[in-house]
DNA sequence: ACACATAGATAGCGAGCACTCGCTTTCTAT
DNA sequence: ATAGAAAGCGAGTGCTCGCTATCTATGTGT
């Protein structure tokens, strides 16, 4: 039970509290929303003082922007994992969509949406978020090219991605249940299946 | 230039300021967002005092819920107007989708989305909004039945509606430009066209 | 060992918030 | 005409917020 007198370098301490703050911000945004993600709430969640927060981030907005960039890489990685699956049959595509839905409902994506909504009413935040936004979109497109690039014309890649992710995002917004990871519901399940059928039949597989 | 000494009944005055407040709330929500829609801001927009607001609405939340019900009827009406169009060819469906997109980007719908997002983090608001939410969804489904009921199986009505409106809602959330009514953009235009093609080919027209 | 720089904690400030209260103005019933 | 009710007003109240000033603790170069 001896309290380990961990000898940490300054850089370690710095990095430790910074990631603690970023993770705490993700948690707060996901379960309380943008408005209730006050600096005090984040500090309580991270287990540090407000003084510590404002040492590393000049303003609340800077913390939020840093958090956006923090989760953006995670989001791309999670999206990339769906690439592994085959996309030959309707069942394949449907399963990819179901997997994508779970990814879109994850806290990291919820964080991203929360910040985007707040940015609509906050011009400063909007411009501060723009680079991360464009970077994320480009990376998503690159991943989509890996997934579907061989199956559909290059010009249709972005539009199809737009249909799919916007539909899933819209779905995420209209989900207000306390547990967003709950069962998809009959209508949603059927809607995803329908979308899969439409995509597959619209882009018939080339005989390999 | 004589100031008309309008003789108004009490009920007239009451109704007048109430609708002024509701319309002002719609405006504030649409152009400033939920957080910045303070009672002071709404009163300034409506041209009444805070005392007047709190005479008619016990809390800010009551005002917001009343506003939600206020716009819900408008939203259904705007949605219903799209029913008039034919949906025979791909061009017809594409035009309906384009029209729907404009409707979804309107201030009334923006108001509704703003409240839904706020409700995710506010359990009280969520339950207060639930009846209006269910009513709106039922009415939308009824209108959709008028539009597409003859073209697709009854069980597919709700899922198709889900795909379409969730995609448009997701699109609305990702639009951060100062002028949301601006040109749709190449990708969006193509995405809507694609969706129209998919729907029409998936539900081929019966020979009349 | 010691001076210094960096990290973290705490108390507090001014602004803005939802909401209240005492008051005046405007309509209504008798 | 007049009493009473309803509508409207705006200064004030307590509270929370982002942020700062000040202090202590801890690691770092010499």
Describe this structure as you would to a colleague:
The structure is a homodimer of 208-residue chains. The model of chain A is unreliable at 1-5 (pLDDT under 50). In chain A, 74% of the residues lie in helices and 0% in strands. Chain A has helices spanning 10-32, 39-46, 50-56, 60-81, 90-104, 107-120, 123-148, 154-174, 186-202. With 208 residues, chain A is an all-alpha fold. Chain A binds chain B through residues 32-36, 113, 116-122, 126, 155-156, 158-160, 162-163, 165-171, 173-174, 176, 187-188, 190-191, 193-195, 197-199, 201-202, and chain B through 32-36, 113, 116-122, 126, 155-156, 158-160, 162-163, 165-171, 173-174, 176, 187-188, 190-191, 193-195, 197-199, 201-202. The structure holds a DNA duplex (30 and 30 nucleotides).
Uncertain segments of chain A: 1-5
Oligomer description: homodimer
User: How would the global form of chain A be characterised?
Assistant: elongated
Major beta-sheet overview of chain A: none
Give the beta-strand count of chain A. Answer: 0
Task: Outline the secondary-structure elements.
Two copies of one chain form a homodimer.
Chain A: H1 10-32, H2 39-46, H3 50-56, H4 60-81, H5 90-104, H6 107-120, H7 123-148, H8 154-174, H9 186-202
Helix pairs in contact in A: 1-2, 1-4, 1-6, 4-6, 4-7, 5-8, 5-9, 6-7, 7-8
Chain A binds a DNA duplex (30 and 30 nucleotides) through residues 7-10, 13-14, 17, 38-40, 48-52, 54-56, 58-60.
């Amino acid at each position: 039970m001896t309290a380990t007198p961990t000898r940490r370098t300054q850089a370690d301490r710095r990095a430790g509290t910074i990631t603690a703050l970023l993770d705490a911000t993700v948690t707060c945004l996901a379960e309380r929303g943008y408005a209730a993600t006050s600096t005090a709430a984040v500090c309580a969640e991270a287990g540090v003082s407000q003084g510590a927060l404002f040492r590393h981030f000049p303003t609340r907005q800077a913390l939020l922007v840093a958090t956006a960039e923090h989760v953006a890489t995670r989001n791309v990685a999670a999206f990339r994992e769906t690439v592994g699956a085959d996309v030959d049959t309707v069942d394949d595509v449907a399963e990819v969509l179901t997997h994508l839905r779970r990814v879109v409902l994850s806290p990291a994506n919820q964080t991203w949406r929360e910040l985007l909504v707040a940015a609509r009413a906050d011009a400063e935040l909007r411009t501060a978020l723009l680079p991360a936004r464009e970077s994320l979109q480009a990376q998503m497109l690159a991943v989509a090219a890996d997934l579907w690039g061989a199956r559909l014309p290059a010009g249709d890649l972005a539009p199809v991605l737009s249909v799919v992710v916007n539909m899933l995002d819209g779905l995420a917004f209209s989900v207000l249940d306390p547990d967003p990871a709950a069962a998809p519901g009959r209508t949603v399940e059927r809607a995803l299946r329908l979308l899969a059928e439409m995509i597959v039949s619209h882009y018939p597989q080339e005989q390999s």
